[in-house]
Design goal:
alpha/beta; six-stranded mixed sheet; four-stranded antiparallel sheet; 7 helices
Length: 275
């Protein structure tokens, strides 16, 4: 890929991040945030293990930022893999962007619209240079080389990573790789962000920059993290995955649930401890 010169103002409109979508209820005549992702009775287990997901019901609406907590091995990352079709559910349904998704070809669109930040950035970065990595997604979405480069440069600018364009990806630090992996996700202008331990390996400065960036993004998000302070600055809804069940830890009764309304940040730090 050539490092093409991009004239000011030539960045295509498609680089703009999505805005919150609303749907109108025919029965009530009122608008409410659109459902983007939904699971119905979703179940999954690994061989010779009890189910890590057991009849899980979940909805994600536009504008929601869901903190997904739970012990290591509880199945949080597995849920992400199922939502984008990297694993196949043993039972239940996945509805993504208004359509039931069962077969691999049906998840291709989902992976373009749901940006998945992997827990290990080395699983996500594979091009020789940073610019090529960040431009790879837009190219796969049909952008021209010039458009993809423009999108990549703009995304790096917004993340405070200007000057990294020609850096060799595998030579970056863990924190730098994490930020470049996020740039790769954002460059595709997804409707949803699935963030798996996004603060791993970040120093305090990069962590603060990440928080500021995410706070200003319009995308709905599901965030897996053990960093309680980080979640407290972003989430407007909290769920915990425990023994295969998705729990609203701040509801009157801690039963498996679908929570459609936003839940305010818990008042007690101890309440948020997830093991």
């Amino acid at each position: 890929m050539s490092n093409a010169s991009i004239a000011p103002g030539s960045i295509p409109e498609s680089t703009q991040f999505v805005t919150t979508q609303f749907v109108t209820s025919e029965t009530e005549g009122t608008s409410q945030p659109a459902v983007l992702l939904e699971t119905r009775g979703l179940s999954y287990n690994y061989p010779r293990r009890r189910p890590v997901l057991d009849q899980v019901d979940f909805t994600l609406r536009s504008g929601e930022r869901v903190a997904l907590t739970g012990a290591n091995g509880a199945g949080k990352t597995t849920l992400f893999h199922l939502l984008v079709g990297l694993k196949k559910a043993k039972a239940g349904e996945i509805v993504a962007f208004g359509q039931i998704r069962k077969k691999e070809p049906e998840f291709v669109e989902v992976r373009a619209r749901a940006g998945f930040l992997f827990q290990d950035p080395d699983d996500q970065l594979f091009c020789p240079t940073v610019l090529e990595d960040v431009a790879f997604g837009p190219l796969n979405l049909g952008k021209s080389e010039a458009q993809a480069i423009a999108i990549a440069k703009q995304t790096l600018l917004e993340l405070g990573m200007v000057g990294f364009e020609d850096r060799i990806t595998y030579q970056l630090s863990g924190g730098e790789k994490r930020m470049i992996a996020l740039a790769c996700v954002l460059a595709m202008s997804p409707d949803v962000l699935l963030l798996d331990e996004p603060t791993n390996a970040l120093d305090s400065q990069a962590r603060a920059r990440l928080i500021e960036t995410l706070q200003h993004l319009p995308q709905a998000m599901i965030i897996i993290s053990h960093d309680e302070d980080f979640l407290g600055q972003l989430a407007n809804r909290w769920l915990r995955l425990d023994e295969g069940k998705l729990i609203d830890p701040y509801a009157a009764s801690c039963s498996p649930c679908i929570v459609d309304d936003s839940v305010t940040e818990p008042q007690s730090e101890q309440d948020r401890v997830d093991g």
